[in-house]
Amino acid sequence: MEEAVDDGVAEQRERLMESLRIYGSHYAELSRRFASWLGLHSTDATAVLEIAAAEERGTPLSPARLSERIPLSTGATTALLNRLESAGHITRAREHSDRRIVTLRSGSHIQERADEFFGPLAQRLDATMSHHSPRFLGQVEAFMADLNATMDGHLADQDTHPRPPAPRP
Fold first, then answer.
1. Share of the chain above pLDDT 70, in %
2. pLDDT for res 108
3. CATH no. for residue 63?
4. Is residue 148 part of a domain?
5. Which residues of the chain have pLDDT under 70?
């Protein structure tokens, strides 16, 4: 009898993981469409969103932190920031007492464009979440934090113990 319960749990976990994969796919497609809408390469649009989101959280990014968030080499990050700054999408500022530290800021039009593009979705998502209790949302939040911590740990393990590529046929 216990085996049947385990099968149901395993199937539920599979369905949940499939739902998370679908959500991730939707997020990637939305990001691609935002980039296209702005007329930017997807990596550039991702960088702009990361910079704007960090600003909204009150923790603006440095170029080094940005390169960690959108895994790029130092040189590639510099080239990306040069493009975005030339286009007026971001600024680099020296706001810290240590003048070597550069802070990335998004152009005011970026936040307006992001709000215009993502605003309707944010309203729909908020309406969907409003159907659930704060307790349930807290449980989902804790669950997602656990999943993200697990993924972070796995990625860190891969960074320290990279697997060789599979042989080509």
1. 95
2. 83
3. 1.10.10.10
4. no
5. 1-5, 162
